[in-house]
Write a structure and sequence with these properties.
- This protein has about 400 residues and is an alpha+beta fold.
- It folds into two domains: about 210 residues, Vaccinia Virus protein VP39 (Rossmann fold); about 130 residues, no CATH class.
- It is built from 13 helices and 19 strands.
- Strands 3, 4, 5, 6, 7, 8, 9, 10, 18 and 19 form a ten-stranded mixed beta sheet that branches.
- Helix 1 runs antiparallel to helix 2 and helix 2 crosses helix 6.
Length: about 400
């Protein structure tokens, strides 16, 4: 389990970087990351790219479909650490993980709950589940991996003290509520717009549903059912430029959101063309918390203008003729990473519109992610109803 000297040194370097960035705050989370070798769970990537690449603070893509759409990955260690800190894990807890991925997250969870605790990880993809089991066996970690639809949880070993979802969802299935202990905690990345913008609330179980107790910014691949791919689950319109020189077209640039779906064909071509060019960097006019500003924009900007980009995450606006695009590019380099500039493509119209929303957020006192209050209730047919409140958000003018 411990690994050789080089592995230990790389783990220590990663942990120190996560501590400096404010992602790791407790000795228990620190010790878990020091103990678990990430390369056990991404063996092909480790062989191809080397150990140093394994221990970069980056997500590692591990599976695509035949069209090159990402299906599974090993999450960025920084956001994993912060989710562990928020989840308030303790020795002896019974934990359900939705989305096994590579098994790395489950291994860390097993260390955090100790030998008296129990970790069950479910995944809808049998191939992904097999890979997770191999990594867990290789390291000797006590976590059970089950193939099933994550939206149904795993009732056989319920109730759970904690449920952690390592995939994004636009809903909170009633199974997660029913399988939690009274007053138990659920942590789930929730999608708040057709662009895929997300927040990760910590939800405490109540008699009627859930209420948020804390919230951080972050993003995950979507929770899938059997046979789904990422695009099908998100149902999010995407304008894609791909590298088709290989066996399949690998996306090299994406613009996502309802805004791109409703453009004319000519406007789509124009927008994609300008977005592949060199953008012009301009001052944002302030240094803003990237997570809070991103969340505000995703909720406040009208869908007809709002877009996000990939593979690197950016959020911004477009004009309806496709001739102007303005983006704020965000980073998870530090817990409270700051953005101070925006990037403009084509005309300046989109930048002017985006800056008006940035100034609106500033005028309202720069509300933080933690100001977003989320509640979930269930009707007589066990269907979830999600509500959110953010001070002043309902009064934001559609500028």
């Amino acid at each position: 389990m411990a690994g050789n000297g080089k592995n230990k040194k790389l783990r220590l370097q990663l942990v120190r970087a996560l501590e400096r960035g404010g992602w790791i705050r407790s000795s228990r989370v620190r010790d878990a990351f020091l103990e678990v070798p990430r390369e056990l769970f991404v063996p092909e990537f480790a062989e191809q790219e080397g150990l140093a690449a394994v221990y970069r603070d980056e997500s590692i893509l591990t599976k695509r479909n035949s069209q090159g759409v990402p299906l599974s990955s090993s999450s960025q260690p920084a956001i994993m650490a912060l989710m562990f800190e928020q989840l308030q894990l303790d020795q002896g807890m019974n934990v359900l993980e939705i989305g096994a991925g590579t098994g790395y997250n489950a291994a860390l969870l097993s260390v955090l709950v100790g030998r008296r605790g129990r970790v069950v990880s479910v995944d809808v993809d049998p191939e992904v589940a097999r890979g997770a089991r191999r990594g867990l066996r290789a390291g000797g970690y006590r976590a059970r991996v089950v193939v099933c639809d994550g939206r149904e949880g795993f009732a056989d070993l319920a109730p759970y003290d904690r449920v952690i979802v390592a995939a994004s969802s636009d809903s909170v299935p009633v199974a997660w509520f029913e399988q939690l202990e009274p007053n138990g905690l659920l942590e789930v990345p929730l999608r708040f717009s057709t662009t895929g913008a997300q927040a990760i609330p910590l939800l405490r179980k109540t008699r009627a549903g859930f209420r948020s107790a804390a919230l951080i910014a972050g993003g995950f691949m979507p929770l899938r059912a059997a046979g789904d791919d990422t695009a099908a689950v998100l149902k999010r319109p995407t304008l894609v430029a791909s590298d088709a020189t290989g066996e399949s077209g690998i996306p090299i640039h994406e613009l996502c959101g309802e805004a791109v779906k409703t453009l004319s064909p000519r406007a789509k071509r124009r927008l994609l063309s300008i977005s592949l060019g060199e953008g012009r960097r301009n001052s944002l006019g302030l240094r803003a918390n990237s997570g809070a500003l991103t969340l505000f924009l995703s909720l406040a900007v009208p869908a007809r203008h709002l877009v996000t980009t990939g593979p690197g995450f950016g959020i911004g606006v477009i004009t309806r003729d496709g001739a102007s695009l303005a983006l704020i590019e965000t980073s998870f380099a530090r817990r409270k990473s700051l953005v101070s500039s925006l990037c403009t493509f084509g005309r300046e119209d989109a930048a002017e519109l985006l800056l008006r929303y940035v100034r609106e957020w500033d005028r309202r006192g720069r509300p933080a992610e933690s100001n977003l209050a989320i509640s979930v209730t269930y009707d007589d047919r066990r269907r979830p109803r999600l509500r959110y409140r953010w001070p002043g958000l309902d009064k934001v003018a559609r500028l």
